[in-house]
Batch of 2 targets.
Target 1
Amino acid sequence: MKVLLTSVFGPYGVDDEYGQASCRMELFHNQVTREQGVFSMRFFHESFGLHFLAENISVPTTVLDFPSEARFVEELRRGYDLVGISFIVANFAKAKRMAELVRRHAPHARIVLGGHGVQIPEVAEEIPHDHLCVGEGVRWLRGILGEDPKAPIRHPIRPATFGGRILGVPVKDGSGHVMPGLGCPNGCRFCSTSHFFGRQYIPYLETGKQIFDLCVAIERALNVRRFFVMDENFLQHPERAEELLALMEKHGKTYRFNLFSSAENITKVGVDFLVRLGVVSLWLGVESKFEVYDKNRGVNFKTLVNDLRDHGISVLTSAILFLDQHDHRTIWEDIRFIVGLEPDLIQFMQLGPVPYTPLYRGMKATGRLLENVPYRHWHGQERIWFQHPHFKADETDRILTEAFRYEYDTLGPALMRMCDTYLRGYRTLASTRDPFLAGRREALKRRAGKFRPFLAAARDHAHNETARELVGRLTDEYNDVFGRMTLRQQAQSQVVRGFAAREARRVAAGRNVYQPRTIVTHYGR
Ligand code: SF4
């Protein structure tokens, strides 16, 4: 028995019969910093779920990530008994094409379809397959392979990102991937993750000790001390985070974490706890001032974001546009509200009714879905695919772009805001006598030092007066707080300017999409 697990084929982020230029593989460049030109932050994430599956079955398995169509066919010819294809809704056409290729080039292989795309109603009829994996995949896959679904879970050791570039400078992939669990019980009506896993939290790492031991193992293997925590709402289980912190303090480990968390859980544990824990960035779902979910009730976001940034924690707030409460006036009220929070980063996403969510079911039942819109448009970064009481679908693309540009014009480049956050956090912790917090302060200083050589290039490419003022202020304050740049930093600064100039030419020429390299990983051989 041989298993092949694959993501969909590229190229990505181009207009062709399978995809769109507005659906890119780079997370931030797709939906966070996409209108920030040369300042857009570029990196890729592996299809971590495929590695998780491969690590937890005992048969020889190949993970093929980001193949071309030809590379996928080449791999099929190596003789597999089971081929798993993972896809999101927007990649329906790619998954269909790949399943057809499996039937042609590996006719004896069973096909498993997995990922958020599998609940599209047409999948059953239109995509050749033998199995559909809905929900948690590890135990399910073990089941169809005749293995013990309840065997202990093994967590793969993988880097969190690759192919990073900041202002055109290739940056080292410096963090590991940690996935404590899947799903979220909150069940916000639009949330595909929560509903895909049946509004349950499915833990893989149930204790702080398990997470700590994993971090130690990743540190040893990859030489990293920063971790991207792939868990929709990590702080929902504060006792786990508390145990993790206690072990870090006991063993003198100043690990750092990028987290997703709802506001209610941040306010429960408090900002001081997050600083001790080593949280360096938080993805926070603000959503809208007009549709307030339980997780956000009573939260003063302005104060919260300010407090987090004052403690050196970068904040990404996410917002939803084209709610029913939005008309041409109120949508801008919401955009100004989100921008007015002054976070480091903002994700604007169009309301997107994807199959199996209550939002989708409600729109389907009331005939509001634009059923003739191909699935490759269903990704939230182009135009809506439902009837809105106040907007035509073909104006939503422009308004989304204007929201991103308004943010960029008003707050300046996200990269500079993050440099500001490092400095603010360093100042807040400047006088601490607590040795563990002093470690946190020194980490912020190192981070600030790492990005300081980017300031000169940022000044070269600042696109308006606000951005120029921000860069100028930061340059002065960095000089005040950290003293003159070292000779090494001065040299780096010139190198960054060279890379940034080249990147700016690339962006200006319209070549503003990078493709991930194909990654082939073998398990159990
Ligand atoms: S709190 Fe976040 S992860 Fe949980 S259901 Fe709501 S949007 Fe989804």
Target 2
Amino acid sequence: MSGEAPAHQVLARKYRPQGFEELVGQPGVSQTLSNALSSKRLHHAYLFTGPRGCGKTTTARILAKGLNCVKGPTPQPCGECAPCREIAASSCLDVLEMDAASNTGVDDVRQVIIETVALAPARDRYKVFIIDEAHMLSNSAFNALLKTIEEPPPHAVFILATTEVHKVPATIASRCQRFKFRPVAPEPLAEHLAAIAKKEKVAVDAEALRLLARAAEGSLRDAVSLLDQCRSAGEGRVTVESVREMFGFVSADLLLGAARALHERDAKALAGWLKKVYEEGVEPAQFLKDLRAAIEAVYLEKLGAGDADPAWSQALSGATAEGLGFLLRRLNRALEELRFGDSPRLALELGLFSALEAAHDLGAWVARLEALERRLSAGGGGPALSAAPASAPVSVTMPPAPRDEAPALTAAAQPAASGGADWSAFVAAVSRQKLALGTTLEKCAHETRPDGGWTIRFARQFDLDGAERARTFLEEALAALAGRPLKLQFALGGTAAPSASVDIVDPAIPETPGGAPPGARWKDVTEGGPDAGAAGALKKAEGVFGGKARIIKKPTGGA
Ligand SMILES: [Zn+2]
């Protein structure tokens, strides 16, 4: 590097890799290009593809230096000769860089490339054309370029870089040697940042580097600028807290606490952690994503496909892969609902609490039945049970299933009157598309009129108006369930019994699972999901009682 270095030089420019050995995270690319330069088996056109920030333009400049270095062609450009220094500073007359994003037209191509390509290089060995964002060129520009690439003068080399290779015409792409750049993995990114921090004498925690590398999402350029921002803000010191603060990362305590509460099915503790999420101003989406990423790592570890953070492995050591898979699906669904709903907070709470409840209800229920079965087979059946005639139907009371699992369960257990529809299936169907409306309906009472249609009663005029606006949607949903068109009527007054709710309280994480029956964790909910569990449990009940069991939903909730 020549000239005076400014007091605060942008790190990304200062530490831009200058040779193939300095390229980060692209071993295949640097190896192949180095070999080509040392064996002098060079192409006239190269196509570099891959996501932004992973080193395509940097590699193009290194290749240009390798071609034009006074000691070249060489895989190790000296970095000191005039061509090397000028290429590094983008001021070399024989290496022309063109940003196709701002020069898309045929005239630009003609001016920069076609009219100069035939002329011999001004000084250097090759005339190198680097075309960045090549996919942005217009069709006529590509056509003009094609003729040149088809029959290039011996001194011309083209390097096309693009993030969207599918937009580059096949006629062009097929004449180029292609190199696929990959997003840089977090480990080499963090190592690279550590090396820069050391040279810059910036104190950085290892965990902070890991966070920065993750935030950069595979882009070396982004990773270095993020480090730069943190360095400026932290006055020479970069801590985990400052990185979290700066980029809105969720603190590890919060994530781990929530995961532990989920694992131990501790609604109170979970509510406490959620309260903290709101207090700290963490975005619900960010929280769900970070939670999902951490749990996914443990899930993969349990499947033998990776390593998780030891603190997380420890916290979720009692969970099974099935249980974690179930939870991950719930988190995915919550994120989906969050994206399409109008209340991120509601989506977050519904997602987490329903994950907790689904495991709880079915798990505890099956555990109770199993205990009963054991007692019966041990010959300790109570008098009331043994006195019941074998053919009499036995009712098993079950807490309400989580709403989205409800349709299948209730449809099988309580066939709707002919031509009618099931209320909870209706609410579930509405919730799938309009979460807020579904949540309102959950709290409403309804009556079936003689014509099979429903009168729905709302507590507030506001909710009634909302339903009125969505009348067409609601009647279509009802018709789909009933198999025929039915009319809805809306009225004020009267609501269903309130469903169980959870108050937000301070975090109180018990040292041991709070009164959870053994063997009633997520692992009880297997791949088939809660429905399969319910059906299995129903069978079990029939086996135990020797009669016909059916599921009756208890309206007020609670196990
Ligand atoms: Zn050189």
